[in-house]
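Margin note from the TA: students keep mixing up input and output lines. Inputs are the sequences; the output is the structure of the whole complex. Example:
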Amino acid sequence: MLQVEHISFSYRKKQVLRDVCFTAKEGDFIGIIGKNGCGKSTLLSVLAGVRRPAGGSVSFENTPLYTKASVPAETVGYVPQLNPLLPELSVRDNLKLWLRDSELSTKEETEHLYEQMGLMDYFRTPVGKLSEGMKKRVSITSVLQNHPKLLILDEPSAALDLPCKEIIHEQLLSFSRKGGIILFTTHEEAEFSLCTTLYILKDGILVRADDTQDKHALIQQF
Amino acid sequence: MSVLFLLQLKRAVKAVPRIIAGALIPLFFAGMAVFWAQKQHTEDTGSLLSPVALVNHDSESHLDVILPMITETEAASSFSFQEMNETEAMDALEAGDVCAVLVLPKEMMEGILDSTNIPAKLYLSGGDSFPSLLIGKYAEAGSLTLGSAQAGIYAATDLYAEYGITSHLSDIYYDINTANLKYALSRESTFLTKASTAIGEFSLIEYYGCTLLLCLLLFLGAGMGSFLGTPAPKTFSEQLRRNGMGPLSMELSLFLPLTLFYLMFTFALAALARRFLPGLTFSGSSVLFFVCMALCFSAYTQLIFSFAKNAGQGLLIFTFLGLLMILFAGGFLPYAFLPKLFSVLTPVLPLGACLSGLRSLVGGALSLWDTLLLLLHTVILLGLLIALSLLNRKEVRQ
Protein backbone atom coordinates (compact mmCIF):
# COMPACT_ATOMS: atom_id res chain seq x y z
CA MET A 1 0.00 0.00 0.00
CA LEU A 2 1.30 3.43 -0.99
CA GLN A 3 0.24 6.32 1.17
CA VAL A 4 0.83 9.88 0.08
CA GLU A 5 -0.13 12.39 2.76
CA HIS A 6 -0.34 16.17 2.57
CA ILE A 7 2.47 16.65 0.09
CA SER A 8 3.25 20.25 -0.74
CA PHE A 9 6.01 21.68 -2.89
CA SER A 10 7.03 25.16 -4.04
CA TYR A 11 9.37 26.53 -6.68
CA ARG A 12 10.65 29.60 -4.93
CA LYS A 13 7.41 31.47 -4.14
CA LYS A 14 5.14 29.59 -6.50
CA GLN A 15 3.30 26.75 -4.82
CA VAL A 16 3.11 23.86 -7.26
CA LEU A 17 1.62 21.13 -5.07
CA ARG A 18 -0.90 21.75 -2.33
CA ASP A 19 -1.80 19.14 0.23
CA VAL A 20 -1.66 16.21 -2.18
CA CYS A 21 -3.07 13.06 -0.63
CA PHE A 22 -3.94 9.70 -2.11
CA THR A 23 -3.43 5.99 -1.55
CA ALA A 24 -2.74 3.11 -3.91
CA LYS A 25 -2.93 -0.60 -3.33
CA GLU A 26 -1.23 -3.52 -5.05
CA GLY A 27 -2.16 -3.82 -8.70
CA ASP A 28 -3.36 -0.22 -9.00
CA PHE A 29 -2.69 1.53 -12.27
CA ILE A 30 -2.96 5.21 -11.46
CA GLY A 31 -2.97 7.88 -14.11
CA ILE A 32 -2.37 11.55 -13.39
CA ILE A 33 -3.55 14.06 -15.93
CA GLY A 34 -3.44 17.81 -16.13
CA LYS A 35 -2.34 20.79 -18.19
CA ASN A 36 1.24 21.26 -19.32
CA GLY A 37 3.21 22.82 -16.49
CA CYS A 38 0.59 22.08 -13.84
CA GLY A 39 3.10 20.13 -11.72
CA LYS A 40 2.58 16.50 -12.79
CA SER A 41 6.29 15.85 -13.31
CA THR A 42 7.08 17.65 -10.07
CA LEU A 43 4.65 15.42 -8.20
CA LEU A 44 6.22 12.29 -9.67
CA SER A 45 9.73 13.49 -8.92
CA VAL A 46 8.69 14.15 -5.33
CA LEU A 47 7.14 10.69 -5.07
CA ALA A 48 10.31 9.21 -6.61
CA GLY A 49 12.50 10.96 -4.07
CA VAL A 50 14.28 13.24 -6.53
CA ARG A 51 12.85 16.36 -4.91
CA ARG A 52 12.21 16.90 -1.26
CA PRO A 53 8.69 18.13 -0.49
CA ALA A 54 8.12 21.18 1.67
CA GLY A 55 5.72 19.14 3.75
CA GLY A 56 3.97 15.80 3.94
CA SER A 57 5.13 12.22 3.75
CA VAL A 58 5.24 9.22 1.46
CA SER A 59 5.14 5.72 2.87
CA PHE A 60 5.07 2.31 1.33
CA GLU A 61 3.81 -0.73 3.21
CA ASN A 62 3.70 1.44 6.32
CA THR A 63 7.40 2.32 6.00
CA PRO A 64 8.31 5.94 5.28
CA LEU A 65 10.19 6.34 2.04
CA TYR A 66 13.09 8.67 1.44
CA THR A 67 14.09 9.04 5.01
CA LYS A 68 17.61 8.09 3.97
CA ALA A 69 19.51 9.59 1.08
CA SER A 70 19.22 6.42 -0.93
CA VAL A 71 15.91 5.21 -2.33
CA PRO A 72 16.01 1.44 -2.83
CA ALA A 73 15.69 0.81 -6.53
CA GLU A 74 13.98 -2.51 -5.81
CA THR A 75 11.13 -0.68 -4.06
CA VAL A 76 10.52 2.35 -6.27
CA GLY A 77 11.39 2.47 -9.94
CA TYR A 78 11.29 5.86 -11.61
CA VAL A 79 11.28 6.55 -15.35
CA PRO A 80 11.66 10.30 -15.90
CA GLN A 81 10.44 12.08 -18.98
CA LEU A 82 13.96 12.52 -20.32
CA ASN A 83 15.89 9.30 -20.62
CA PRO A 84 18.67 8.96 -18.06
CA LEU A 85 20.87 7.10 -20.52
CA LEU A 86 24.43 7.64 -21.67
CA PRO A 87 24.15 7.98 -25.46
CA GLU A 88 27.68 6.81 -26.28
CA LEU A 89 27.27 3.54 -24.45
CA SER A 90 25.55 0.48 -25.79
CA VAL A 91 22.12 -0.69 -24.66
CA ARG A 92 23.78 -3.48 -22.67
CA ASP A 93 26.11 -1.07 -20.86
CA ASN A 94 23.26 1.27 -19.99
CA LEU A 95 21.19 -1.56 -18.60
CA LYS A 96 24.20 -2.85 -16.68
CA LEU A 97 24.69 0.58 -15.15
CA TRP A 98 21.25 0.59 -13.55
CA LEU A 99 21.06 -3.11 -12.66
CA ARG A 100 21.25 -3.62 -8.92
CA ASP A 101 22.39 -6.86 -7.32
CA SER A 102 19.20 -8.60 -6.49
CA GLU A 103 18.02 -12.01 -5.45
CA LEU A 104 14.62 -11.25 -6.91
CA SER A 105 15.49 -12.34 -10.40
CA THR A 106 17.73 -14.79 -12.15
CA LYS A 107 19.79 -14.03 -15.20
CA GLU A 108 17.28 -15.94 -17.31
CA GLU A 109 14.40 -13.83 -16.05
CA THR A 110 16.28 -10.64 -16.79
CA GLU A 111 17.09 -11.82 -20.30
CA HIS A 112 13.45 -12.77 -20.78
CA LEU A 113 12.48 -9.20 -19.89
CA TYR A 114 14.99 -7.82 -22.40
CA GLU A 115 13.51 -10.12 -25.00
CA GLN A 116 9.95 -9.06 -24.23
CA MET A 117 10.97 -5.42 -24.56
CA GLY A 118 12.55 -6.23 -27.91
CA LEU A 119 16.05 -5.15 -26.91
CA MET A 120 18.08 -8.25 -27.70
CA ASP A 121 18.89 -7.18 -31.26
CA TYR A 122 20.10 -3.79 -30.10
CA PHE A 123 22.36 -4.85 -27.26
CA ARG A 124 25.53 -3.62 -28.90
CA THR A 125 24.01 -0.50 -30.44
CA PRO A 126 24.92 2.82 -28.83
CA VAL A 127 21.84 4.35 -27.26
CA GLY A 128 22.47 7.59 -29.12
CA LYS A 129 21.73 5.80 -32.39
CA LEU A 130 18.37 4.47 -31.24
CA SER A 131 14.96 5.96 -31.99
CA GLU A 132 13.12 7.76 -29.19
CA GLY A 133 10.79 4.78 -28.83
CA MET A 134 13.69 2.38 -28.36
CA LYS A 135 15.33 4.72 -25.88
CA LYS A 136 12.13 4.81 -23.86
CA ARG A 137 11.99 1.02 -23.91
CA VAL A 138 15.58 0.85 -22.65
CA SER A 139 14.75 3.39 -20.00
CA ILE A 140 11.71 1.44 -18.76
CA THR A 141 13.61 -1.86 -18.91
CA SER A 142 16.45 -0.38 -16.84
CA VAL A 143 13.89 0.11 -14.09
CA LEU A 144 11.85 -3.06 -14.54
CA GLN A 145 14.95 -5.27 -14.38
CA ASN A 146 15.24 -4.43 -10.69
CA HIS A 147 11.68 -5.66 -9.99
CA PRO A 148 10.34 -2.62 -8.16
CA LYS A 149 7.07 -2.76 -6.26
CA LEU A 150 6.11 0.77 -7.23
CA LEU A 151 6.70 2.07 -10.73
CA ILE A 152 6.59 5.81 -11.43
CA LEU A 153 6.60 6.86 -15.08
CA ASP A 154 6.53 10.37 -16.46
CA GLU A 155 4.74 10.32 -19.82
CA PRO A 156 6.11 6.93 -20.85
CA SER A 157 4.53 6.89 -24.28
CA ALA A 158 4.86 10.52 -25.33
CA ALA A 159 5.83 10.90 -28.98
CA LEU A 160 6.10 7.17 -29.56
CA ASP A 161 4.68 5.21 -32.50
CA LEU A 162 1.81 2.78 -32.01
CA PRO A 163 3.81 -0.52 -31.99
CA CYS A 164 6.17 0.93 -29.46
CA LYS A 165 3.29 2.14 -27.28
CA GLU A 166 1.74 -1.30 -27.42
CA ILE A 167 4.90 -3.01 -26.22
CA ILE A 168 5.19 -0.57 -23.35
CA HIS A 169 1.51 -0.87 -22.43
CA GLU A 170 1.74 -4.66 -22.39
CA GLN A 171 4.69 -4.57 -20.06
CA LEU A 172 3.01 -2.09 -17.75
CA LEU A 173 -0.19 -4.12 -17.61
CA SER A 174 1.83 -7.26 -16.93
CA PHE A 175 3.64 -5.45 -14.12
CA SER A 176 0.31 -4.30 -12.68
CA ARG A 177 -1.21 -7.78 -12.93
CA LYS A 178 1.69 -9.14 -10.90
CA GLY A 179 0.72 -6.80 -8.06
CA GLY A 180 2.93 -3.82 -8.80
CA ILE A 181 1.63 -0.29 -8.35
CA ILE A 182 1.95 2.06 -11.32
CA LEU A 183 1.79 5.83 -11.15
CA PHE A 184 2.10 7.62 -14.44
CA THR A 185 1.32 10.88 -16.12
CA THR A 186 -0.16 11.09 -19.56
CA HIS A 187 -1.84 13.30 -22.12
CA GLU A 188 -3.03 10.35 -24.21
CA GLU A 189 -6.76 9.67 -24.19
CA ALA A 190 -6.09 6.06 -25.17
CA GLU A 191 -4.17 5.51 -21.96
CA PHE A 192 -7.03 6.62 -19.72
CA SER A 193 -8.57 3.19 -20.21
CA LEU A 194 -5.46 1.47 -18.81
CA CYS A 195 -5.94 3.15 -15.46
CA THR A 196 -7.78 1.75 -12.50
CA THR A 197 -7.88 5.27 -11.08
CA LEU A 198 -7.42 8.67 -12.69
CA TYR A 199 -6.43 11.83 -10.90
CA ILE A 200 -6.53 15.37 -12.21
CA LEU A 201 -3.95 17.85 -11.03
CA LYS A 202 -5.14 21.42 -11.23
CA ASP A 203 -3.73 24.47 -9.45
CA GLY A 204 -1.56 22.18 -7.36
CA ILE A 205 -4.50 20.21 -6.02
CA LEU A 206 -4.94 16.55 -6.88
CA VAL A 207 -8.55 15.49 -7.39
CA ARG A 208 -9.79 12.02 -8.14
CA ALA A 209 -11.67 11.94 -11.44
CA ASP A 210 -15.24 10.81 -11.43
CA ASP A 211 -15.24 7.25 -12.78
CA THR A 212 -18.54 7.84 -14.46
CA GLN A 213 -17.31 10.79 -16.53
CA ASP A 214 -16.39 10.17 -20.14
CA LYS A 215 -12.96 11.06 -21.49
CA HIS A 216 -14.00 14.33 -23.08
CA ALA A 217 -15.57 15.52 -19.89
CA LEU A 218 -12.34 14.71 -18.09
CA ILE A 219 -10.29 16.70 -20.56
CA GLN A 220 -12.66 19.63 -20.08
CA GLN A 221 -11.75 19.62 -16.40
CA PHE A 222 -8.05 20.35 -17.08
CA MET B 1 30.38 3.05 -8.24
CA SER B 2 32.95 0.79 -9.86
CA VAL B 3 30.50 -0.01 -12.70
CA LEU B 4 29.91 3.68 -13.25
CA PHE B 5 33.63 4.43 -13.25
CA LEU B 6 34.34 1.65 -15.75
CA LEU B 7 31.51 2.76 -18.01
CA GLN B 8 32.66 6.38 -17.88
CA LEU B 9 36.11 5.18 -18.83
CA LYS B 10 34.63 3.20 -21.68
CA ARG B 11 32.78 6.27 -22.92
CA ALA B 12 35.97 8.28 -22.80
CA VAL B 13 37.95 5.64 -24.70
CA LYS B 14 35.32 5.65 -27.42
CA ALA B 15 35.60 9.41 -27.73
CA VAL B 16 39.41 9.60 -27.91
CA PRO B 17 39.74 9.79 -31.73
CA ARG B 18 37.13 12.54 -31.84
CA ILE B 19 38.84 14.38 -29.00
CA ILE B 20 42.24 14.23 -30.70
CA ALA B 21 40.79 15.39 -34.01
CA GLY B 22 39.02 18.20 -32.21
CA ALA B 23 42.25 19.28 -30.54
CA LEU B 24 44.15 19.59 -33.81
CA ILE B 25 41.96 22.36 -35.21
CA PRO B 26 42.43 24.89 -32.39
CA LEU B 27 46.07 23.83 -32.21
CA PHE B 28 46.46 25.00 -35.78
CA PHE B 29 45.22 28.44 -34.75
CA ALA B 30 47.41 28.41 -31.65
CA GLY B 31 50.37 27.55 -33.91
CA MET B 32 49.56 30.54 -36.07
CA ALA B 33 49.37 32.78 -33.01
CA VAL B 34 52.75 31.48 -31.85
CA PHE B 35 54.24 32.07 -35.29
CA TRP B 36 52.94 35.62 -35.26
CA ALA B 37 54.30 36.19 -31.77
CA GLN B 38 57.67 34.80 -32.82
CA LYS B 39 57.80 37.26 -35.69
CA GLN B 40 57.02 40.08 -33.29
CA HIS B 41 60.16 39.69 -31.27
CA THR B 42 62.66 38.62 -33.91
CA GLU B 43 62.81 41.98 -35.65
CA ASP B 44 65.21 42.37 -38.57
CA THR B 45 68.34 44.05 -37.25
CA GLY B 46 68.97 45.54 -40.70
CA SER B 47 66.59 48.34 -39.87
CA LEU B 48 68.90 49.46 -37.07
CA LEU B 49 71.58 50.80 -39.48
CA SER B 50 72.30 54.48 -38.91
CA PRO B 51 72.85 56.62 -42.02
CA VAL B 52 76.06 58.67 -42.41
CA ALA B 53 76.58 61.19 -45.21
CA LEU B 54 79.92 60.95 -46.98
CA VAL B 55 81.23 64.02 -48.80
CA ASN B 56 84.25 63.11 -50.88
CA HIS B 57 86.25 66.07 -52.28
CA ASP B 58 89.16 63.80 -53.15
CA SER B 59 87.52 61.65 -55.78
CA GLU B 60 90.37 62.03 -58.26
CA SER B 61 92.95 60.33 -56.03
CA HIS B 62 93.33 56.74 -54.86
CA LEU B 63 90.89 57.43 -52.02
CA ASP B 64 88.18 55.74 -54.05
CA VAL B 65 90.12 52.52 -53.68
CA ILE B 66 90.74 52.95 -49.96
CA LEU B 67 87.24 54.17 -49.05
CA PRO B 68 85.37 50.88 -49.58
CA MET B 69 87.99 49.17 -47.44
CA ILE B 70 86.98 51.50 -44.59
CA THR B 71 83.21 51.55 -45.04
CA GLU B 72 83.08 47.80 -45.32
CA THR B 73 84.98 47.11 -42.10
CA GLU B 74 83.15 45.31 -39.32
CA ALA B 75 83.47 48.46 -37.20
CA ALA B 76 81.52 50.49 -39.73
CA SER B 77 78.84 47.86 -40.26
CA SER B 78 76.40 49.66 -37.97
CA PHE B 79 76.29 52.56 -40.42
CA SER B 80 75.13 52.99 -43.95
CA PHE B 81 77.26 55.44 -45.91
CA GLN B 82 75.56 57.58 -48.51
CA GLU B 83 77.61 59.80 -50.81
CA MET B 84 76.25 63.36 -51.12
CA ASN B 85 77.49 66.82 -51.92
CA GLU B 86 78.33 68.96 -48.90
CA THR B 87 75.16 71.09 -49.00
CA GLU B 88 72.87 68.11 -49.22
CA ALA B 89 74.79 66.40 -46.44
CA MET B 90 74.56 69.36 -44.06
CA ASP B 91 70.82 69.71 -44.78
CA ALA B 92 70.33 66.01 -44.08
CA LEU B 93 72.23 66.34 -40.79
CA GLU B 94 70.12 69.28 -39.77
CA ALA B 95 66.94 67.45 -40.65
CA GLY B 96 68.07 64.44 -38.63
CA ASP B 97 68.12 62.18 -41.70
CA VAL B 98 71.76 61.28 -41.05
CA CYS B 99 73.57 60.98 -37.76
CA ALA B 100 76.88 62.38 -39.03
CA VAL B 101 78.59 63.94 -42.03
CA LEU B 102 82.11 62.84 -42.92
CA VAL B 103 83.87 65.31 -45.19
CA LEU B 104 87.02 64.02 -46.91
CA PRO B 105 89.13 67.04 -48.07
CA LYS B 106 90.75 67.53 -51.48
CA GLU B 107 94.22 65.98 -51.81
CA MET B 108 93.71 63.99 -48.66
CA MET B 109 95.60 61.00 -50.01
CA GLU B 110 98.56 63.16 -51.04
CA GLY B 111 98.51 64.76 -47.60
CA ILE B 112 98.76 61.36 -45.99
CA LEU B 113 101.64 60.37 -48.28
CA ASP B 114 103.63 63.58 -47.84
CA SER B 115 102.75 63.92 -44.15
CA THR B 116 100.97 67.26 -44.52
CA ASN B 117 97.89 65.39 -43.23
CA ILE B 118 95.01 67.53 -44.29
CA PRO B 119 92.36 66.45 -41.75
CA ALA B 120 89.01 64.96 -42.62
CA LYS B 121 86.07 66.63 -40.89
CA LEU B 122 83.31 64.82 -39.02
CA TYR B 123 80.12 66.69 -38.25
CA LEU B 124 77.90 65.08 -35.65
CA SER B 125 74.24 65.80 -34.94
CA GLY B 126 73.54 67.90 -31.86
CA GLY B 127 72.67 66.24 -28.55
CA ASP B 128 74.04 62.91 -27.54
CA SER B 129 72.33 60.45 -29.83
CA PHE B 130 73.82 57.01 -29.62
CA PRO B 131 74.75 56.66 -33.34
CA SER B 132 76.52 60.05 -33.25
CA LEU B 133 78.51 59.13 -30.17
CA LEU B 134 79.36 55.82 -31.72
CA ILE B 135 80.65 57.17 -35.02
CA GLY B 136 82.63 59.80 -33.08
CA LYS B 137 84.31 57.01 -31.16
CA TYR B 138 84.99 55.06 -34.32
CA ALA B 139 86.44 58.14 -36.04
CA GLU B 140 88.76 58.68 -33.09
CA ALA B 141 89.88 55.06 -33.25
CA GLY B 142 90.18 55.34 -37.04
CA SER B 143 92.51 58.34 -36.85
CA LEU B 144 94.76 56.43 -34.43
CA THR B 145 94.76 53.49 -36.81
CA LEU B 146 95.55 55.81 -39.70
CA GLY B 147 98.42 57.34 -37.74
CA SER B 148 99.83 53.92 -37.10
CA ALA B 149 99.48 52.97 -40.76
CA GLN B 150 101.15 56.20 -41.80
CA ALA B 151 104.13 55.51 -39.55
CA GLY B 152 104.45 52.05 -41.08
CA ILE B 153 104.26 53.45 -44.59
CA TYR B 154 107.00 56.04 -43.94
CA ALA B 155 109.25 53.43 -42.37
CA ALA B 156 108.68 51.03 -45.27
CA THR B 157 109.33 53.79 -47.84
CA ASP B 158 112.65 54.72 -46.22
CA LEU B 159 113.68 51.08 -45.84
CA TYR B 160 112.79 50.13 -49.43
CA ALA B 161 114.59 53.25 -50.72
CA GLU B 162 117.71 52.30 -48.81
CA TYR B 163 117.71 48.82 -50.35
CA GLY B 164 116.74 50.12 -53.80
CA ILE B 165 113.52 48.11 -54.16
CA THR B 166 111.02 50.98 -54.47
CA SER B 167 109.23 49.16 -57.30
CA HIS B 168 107.52 46.99 -54.66
CA LEU B 169 106.35 49.95 -52.58
CA SER B 170 102.72 49.81 -53.78
CA ASP B 171 102.48 46.19 -52.59
CA ILE B 172 103.78 46.96 -49.12
CA TYR B 173 101.48 50.02 -48.83
CA TYR B 174 98.53 47.81 -49.60
CA ASP B 175 99.62 45.20 -47.04
CA ILE B 176 100.19 47.81 -44.34
CA ASN B 177 96.81 49.43 -44.95
CA THR B 178 95.05 46.09 -44.92
CA ALA B 179 96.79 44.98 -41.73
CA ASN B 180 95.97 48.21 -39.91
CA LEU B 181 92.34 48.19 -40.96
CA LYS B 182 92.15 44.64 -39.77
CA TYR B 183 93.20 45.73 -36.28
CA ALA B 184 90.93 48.76 -36.27
CA LEU B 185 88.52 48.97 -33.39
CA SER B 186 86.04 46.14 -33.83
CA ARG B 187 82.41 46.59 -32.98
CA GLU B 188 82.54 43.72 -30.49
CA SER B 189 85.01 45.60 -28.33
CA THR B 190 82.58 48.52 -28.10
CA PHE B 191 79.58 46.50 -27.02
CA LEU B 192 79.03 44.00 -24.26
CA THR B 193 78.21 40.97 -26.33
CA LYS B 194 76.15 39.04 -23.78
CA ALA B 195 73.03 37.68 -25.48
CA SER B 196 69.84 38.92 -23.94
CA THR B 197 66.41 38.20 -25.40
CA ALA B 198 62.81 38.58 -24.35
CA ILE B 199 62.56 34.84 -23.82
CA GLY B 200 65.56 34.64 -21.51
CA GLU B 201 67.81 31.61 -21.66
CA PHE B 202 65.37 29.61 -23.79
CA SER B 203 65.58 28.96 -27.47
CA LEU B 204 62.47 29.78 -29.46
CA ILE B 205 61.74 26.07 -29.82
CA GLU B 206 61.97 25.54 -26.06
CA TYR B 207 59.92 28.61 -25.27
CA TYR B 208 57.07 27.92 -27.67
CA GLY B 209 57.42 24.16 -27.31
CA CYS B 210 56.21 24.55 -23.72
CA THR B 211 53.32 26.72 -24.89
CA LEU B 212 52.29 24.25 -27.57
CA LEU B 213 52.48 21.35 -25.14
CA LEU B 214 50.16 23.15 -22.77
CA CYS B 215 47.84 24.26 -25.58
CA LEU B 216 47.57 20.67 -26.78
CA LEU B 217 46.66 19.53 -23.29
CA LEU B 218 44.14 22.35 -23.08
CA PHE B 219 42.48 21.47 -26.35
CA LEU B 220 42.46 17.76 -25.57
CA GLY B 221 40.93 18.68 -22.24
CA ALA B 222 38.28 20.75 -24.00
CA GLY B 223 37.22 17.66 -25.91
CA MET B 224 37.36 15.40 -22.90
CA GLY B 225 35.67 17.90 -20.64
CA SER B 226 32.78 18.59 -22.95
CA PHE B 227 32.38 14.85 -23.25
CA LEU B 228 32.83 13.73 -19.67
CA GLY B 229 31.81 16.91 -17.89
CA THR B 230 28.26 16.89 -19.14
CA PRO B 231 27.56 13.22 -19.51
CA ALA B 232 23.82 13.07 -19.86
CA PRO B 233 20.62 14.88 -19.06
CA LYS B 234 19.99 16.03 -15.53
CA THR B 235 17.87 12.94 -15.08
CA PHE B 236 21.03 10.85 -15.21
CA SER B 237 22.46 12.42 -12.09
CA GLU B 238 19.04 12.36 -10.46
CA GLN B 239 18.79 8.65 -11.05
CA LEU B 240 22.29 8.13 -9.73
CA ARG B 241 21.36 10.01 -6.60
CA ARG B 242 18.24 7.89 -6.17
CA ASN B 243 20.50 4.87 -6.39
CA GLY B 244 22.64 6.03 -3.54
CA MET B 245 25.39 7.80 -5.43
CA GLY B 246 25.80 11.30 -4.04
CA PRO B 247 27.28 14.27 -5.85
CA LEU B 248 30.77 13.48 -4.64
CA SER B 249 30.61 9.94 -5.99
CA MET B 250 29.38 11.34 -9.29
CA GLU B 251 32.18 13.88 -9.47
CA LEU B 252 34.68 11.18 -8.56
CA SER B 253 33.37 8.87 -11.26
CA LEU B 254 34.15 11.63 -13.76
CA PHE B 255 37.34 12.85 -12.16
CA LEU B 256 39.05 9.46 -12.22
CA PRO B 257 38.77 8.79 -15.98
CA LEU B 258 39.55 12.43 -16.67
CA THR B 259 42.71 12.24 -14.60
CA LEU B 260 43.65 8.95 -16.19
CA PHE B 261 43.36 10.53 -19.61
CA TYR B 262 45.28 13.62 -18.65
CA LEU B 263 48.03 11.43 -17.21
CA MET B 264 48.14 9.41 -20.39
CA PHE B 265 48.22 12.47 -22.63
CA THR B 266 50.68 14.37 -20.46
CA PHE B 267 53.23 11.58 -20.47
CA ALA B 268 52.67 10.75 -24.13
CA LEU B 269 53.08 14.38 -25.20
CA ALA B 270 56.10 14.85 -22.95
CA ALA B 271 57.72 11.75 -24.47
CA LEU B 272 57.04 13.08 -27.97
CA ALA B 273 58.24 16.57 -27.10
CA ARG B 274 61.55 15.31 -25.71
CA ARG B 275 62.92 15.32 -29.21
CA PHE B 276 62.54 19.10 -29.36
CA LEU B 277 62.76 19.85 -25.67
CA PRO B 278 65.73 17.90 -24.34
CA GLY B 279 65.15 19.32 -20.86
CA LEU B 280 62.02 17.19 -20.51
CA THR B 281 63.36 14.31 -18.50
CA PHE B 282 61.54 11.55 -16.66
CA SER B 283 63.28 11.79 -13.32
CA GLY B 284 61.45 11.38 -10.02
CA SER B 285 60.81 15.11 -9.61
CA SER B 286 59.64 15.62 -13.18
CA VAL B 287 57.30 12.60 -13.00
CA LEU B 288 55.82 14.07 -9.83
CA PHE B 289 55.44 17.39 -11.60
CA PHE B 290 53.66 15.75 -14.56
CA VAL B 291 51.30 13.92 -12.22
CA CYS B 292 50.48 17.19 -10.45
CA MET B 293 49.99 18.91 -13.79
CA ALA B 294 47.56 16.18 -14.92
CA LEU B 295 45.66 16.48 -11.63
CA CYS B 296 45.53 20.24 -11.93
CA PHE B 297 44.20 20.05 -15.48
CA SER B 298 41.58 17.46 -14.45
CA ALA B 299 40.37 19.57 -11.57
CA TYR B 300 40.26 22.71 -13.73
CA THR B 301 38.41 20.90 -16.54
CA GLN B 302 35.84 19.36 -14.29
CA LEU B 303 35.25 22.52 -12.31
CA ILE B 304 34.54 24.53 -15.44
CA PHE B 305 32.26 21.92 -17.00
CA SER B 306 30.40 21.42 -13.73
CA PHE B 307 29.94 25.15 -13.43
CA ALA B 308 28.70 25.61 -16.99
CA LYS B 309 25.06 25.07 -17.82
CA ASN B 310 25.81 22.94 -20.87
CA ALA B 311 28.69 21.47 -22.84
CA GLY B 312 28.84 24.37 -25.31
CA GLN B 313 29.04 26.99 -22.60
CA GLY B 314 31.58 24.87 -20.74
CA LEU B 315 33.72 24.55 -23.83
CA LEU B 316 33.67 28.29 -24.37
CA ILE B 317 34.58 29.18 -20.79
CA PHE B 318 37.16 26.42 -20.55
CA THR B 319 39.01 27.40 -23.72
CA PHE B 320 38.75 31.15 -23.20
CA LEU B 321 39.95 31.04 -19.59
CA GLY B 322 42.65 28.51 -20.46
CA LEU B 323 44.07 30.61 -23.28
CA LEU B 324 43.84 33.72 -21.12
CA MET B 325 45.86 32.01 -18.39
CA ILE B 326 48.47 30.88 -20.90
CA LEU B 327 48.64 34.43 -22.26
CA PHE B 328 49.07 35.81 -18.74
CA ALA B 329 51.87 33.35 -18.16
CA GLY B 330 53.71 34.68 -21.21
CA GLY B 331 52.78 31.71 -23.35
CA PHE B 332 52.19 33.62 -26.54
CA LEU B 333 54.22 36.76 -25.96
CA PRO B 334 57.13 37.09 -23.55
CA TYR B 335 56.68 39.21 -20.44
CA ALA B 336 58.75 41.95 -22.03
CA PHE B 337 55.79 42.65 -24.31
CA LEU B 338 53.11 42.32 -21.64
CA PRO B 339 51.91 44.47 -18.73
CA LYS B 340 53.82 43.82 -15.53
CA LEU B 341 50.60 42.72 -13.82
CA PHE B 342 50.59 39.55 -15.93
CA SER B 343 53.78 38.18 -14.41
CA VAL B 344 52.46 38.96 -10.93
CA LEU B 345 49.22 37.09 -11.57
CA THR B 346 50.80 34.03 -13.19
CA PRO B 347 51.48 32.03 -9.99
CA VAL B 348 47.85 32.37 -8.86
CA LEU B 349 46.46 31.03 -12.14
CA PRO B 350 46.43 27.23 -12.40
CA LEU B 351 47.53 27.00 -16.02
CA GLY B 352 49.96 29.86 -15.47
CA ALA B 353 51.59 27.81 -12.75
CA CYS B 354 51.61 24.80 -15.11
CA LEU B 355 53.40 26.79 -17.80
CA SER B 356 55.97 28.38 -15.55
CA GLY B 357 56.67 24.99 -13.95
CA LEU B 358 57.02 23.37 -17.34
CA ARG B 359 59.48 26.05 -18.38
CA SER B 360 61.46 25.50 -15.20
CA LEU B 361 61.56 21.81 -16.04
CA VAL B 362 62.69 22.41 -19.61
CA GLY B 363 65.28 24.90 -18.38
CA GLY B 364 66.60 22.35 -15.88
CA ALA B 365 65.57 24.43 -12.88
CA LEU B 366 62.47 22.62 -11.66
CA SER B 367 62.07 23.11 -7.95
CA LEU B 368 59.84 21.43 -5.42
CA TRP B 369 58.03 24.74 -5.10
CA ASP B 370 56.81 24.46 -8.72
CA THR B 371 55.28 21.07 -7.96
CA LEU B 372 53.84 22.17 -4.63
CA LEU B 373 52.29 25.21 -6.25
CA LEU B 374 50.52 22.97 -8.75
CA LEU B 375 49.38 20.69 -5.97
CA LEU B 376 48.02 23.68 -4.10
CA HIS B 377 46.09 24.78 -7.19
CA THR B 378 44.69 21.27 -7.58
CA VAL B 379 43.52 21.19 -3.96
CA ILE B 380 41.85 24.61 -4.32
CA LEU B 381 40.15 23.62 -7.58
CA LEU B 382 38.94 20.35 -6.07
CA GLY B 383 37.64 22.23 -3.06
CA LEU B 384 35.68 24.54 -5.35
CA LEU B 385 34.41 21.53 -7.30
CA ILE B 386 33.14 19.84 -4.15
CA ALA B 387 31.50 23.06 -2.98
CA LEU B 388 29.86 23.50 -6.36
CA SER B 389 28.51 19.96 -6.48
CA LEU B 390 27.11 20.27 -2.95
CA LEU B 391 25.50 23.56 -3.91
CA ASN B 392 24.01 22.01 -7.05
CA ARG B 393 22.57 19.18 -4.97
CA LYS B 394 21.05 21.67 -2.59
CA GLU B 395 19.42 23.54 -5.47
CA VAL B 396 18.01 20.35 -6.94
CA ARG B 397 16.70 19.13 -3.62
CA GLN B 398 14.94 22.42 -2.97
